[in-house]
Every structure is written in C-alpha cells, then in structure tokens.
Input
Amino acid sequence: MGIGIALVLALLGVALGLAVFRIVRGPTILDRMIGSDMVLTTALIVIGAAMVVRQDLTGIPVLVVIAATSVFATIAVARAVTPSSDPSDDGLTATTPEERS
Output
C-alpha cells in the first residue's frame, strides 16, 4: 500500500471519528444531523475510491442509495425543526395542510 493511500485512509478515519463524536456529543438534533451527513459522505468517498481502485462500477447503485438517504434525512430533519408560522401552534400536534389553512 502506497504512502498516499495510507495518508488518505488516515484522514478519512479522522473525519469519521470526528463525525461520530459530533453525533454522540452534539447537544441538538442539527448537530447530530451534520455528523450523520459526514458519516454518510465519508462512506460515499470510501466506496467511490474502492470502485476506482478495483475499476469496478457495480457499487454505483449503493452510492445512489446512500446519497438519497442522506438528502432525504436532511430534508426531513430540516422540516421537523423549522418553526411553525402559526403563533398559537405549540409544535405538539401534527396537522394536515388542510387544517393549517
């Protein structure tokens, strides 16, 4: 294994460790979501690099699923933490769009 590959793996390991630390330590759901995005992005990089080294494209569906999971999870958390525009809404009840209007 070349020194460049070892350096890249070490840096990815550090990034993964920091992301897990952010997930465990983060006081808010947004901190945990950022850590989760970092973990999924690191997984994408590792899988993509392995595909390049092996010259094999069979991992592309896995990359698409991981990327889609990351995007949808981020959108779901962003929608969940966005405050309601209705001042009487305490955020404890789920409403349908018809009930809001």
In short: The chain has one domain: 3-79. The chain has a mean pLDDT of 85.
